[in-house]
Known about the structure:
The chain is mainly alpha-helical.
Amino acid sequence: xxxEGTIFAEVVGTRLGMCGLEYYGHPWEFGARKAKELLLTGDxxxxxxxxxxxxxSKIFKPETLQxxxxxxxxxxxxxxxxxxxxxxxxxxxxxxxxxxYNALNASFSLHQLNHAHWAxxxxxxxxxxxxxGVPDWRSAPPVKPAEKTTVESGG
Length: 155
């Protein structure tokens, strides 16, 4: 769920110099090309784009987000528990057979390797620093929207 006006961005690569994330579902959520674009640029998508890509299932008005989310959860809770559990498990098994679980493990290993790299290069820091080409995340420019017809946009 998300409220109208929500913006999503993944800035670990652009602001910390890190290749991976603790949870790496991006290729499954966005497809390979969009995942690469968002991870390499740190650009953002809004709730509408997240919905179109399948990242979120509902967009509610900010003032009704909590009550609408609970109403949706209550609707799902009307199903018999075993039915809900088995539906969720069947979907989870399907994505696991597609390699999701192994990809999560592999990505996290690369993430840890990236931490080790920066610790060695920087003398103990867990992420990249300005002297090694990674901008200081505290003074980084605003995140830019990922737009289909522009390389850079205002921000």
